[in-house]
Amino acid sequence: MTETAAMIDNRKRSHLENGWSTALRADAGRYRGHDGSSGPRVDEDADSSAGAPCTVVIEPRIFFRDCVLASLENVAPATRFLAFGSVEEWAQSDAVLETDLVVLWRAADDVSPGSVEDIGKQVTTVRGASAEAPLALMSNHEDLDFVQKVMDAGANAFIPTSLGLKATIRVFDLVRAGGAFIPASCLASAARPHAAQAPGSAELAGLFSPKQLAVARALRKGMPNKLIAYELNMCESTVKVHVRTIMKKLKARNRTEVAFLTQSLGTPG
């Protein structure tokens, strides 16, 4: 190597060490996990936003978790996001008190006969750590039966990965506000077996009491029991009784089927 080439090589090395490596160290600090590992944590303004409500993403795969967090922060910069490798790690952290939404990720490759039971355990852990924080599950496994079981296990929303980032942020807002969400594709699949037997409005009026009709309309809007109780000035326990009665009379297995079997009540507003 000539003297000139050596000088250029040294300058390049110096630039890498003092420039690019500094940027990489800054990024590494930004995405350092709560346990000091390489998992993402929070944005660069963590000190100023500490204590503010945050949306928590649970995903054990570090690279995928980093990508998800960076994408969400890019689309919703005003929202504070944190990420953890497991529900248990989150439940043992100080972030529990600041969490306004928990998002679980479940890849189709990880869906097995025991998946719903495992998700149910995670839901129980989340509820035990924070009774107020709603929970959403995101997955690329959009099987109707799987979605129904996830919702029955206690999730407030099922968000498919086919949904765009901006739409996903809107769903996050809906769930934080007390709503529920499942994709339209699943609703359409649920409707097909029951379309021919869905009762008309007159039949529903004769089948249900006025209060049960009001609860049924609220179910069509995806409202949780607590919000239905507030809107209709009822006790939450009374709402639960009405929901069970409605499902029994319609022979519906879950709230999704109730929504379609009461479609004659009109489009949710």
From TrEMBL:
Report the leader peptide range: none
The UniProt annotation puts the region (Disordered) at 29-49
Xref: InterPro entries: EvgA-like (IPR051015), Sig_transdc_resp-reg_C-effctor (IPR016032), Tscrpt_reg_LuxR_C (IPR000792)
Give the protein's recorded name: DNA-binding NarL/FixJ family response regulator
Gene Ontology terms for molecular function: DNA binding
Q: Name one Pfam family in it.
A: GerE
Q: Which UniProt keywords apply?
A: DNA-binding
Q: Does the UniProt entry include the keyword DNA-binding?
A: yes
HTH luxR-type domain location, by residue? 201-266
- Biological process GO terms, please? regulation of DNA-templated transcription
Lineage top rank: taxon? Bacteria
CDD domains in the cross-refs: LuxR_C_like
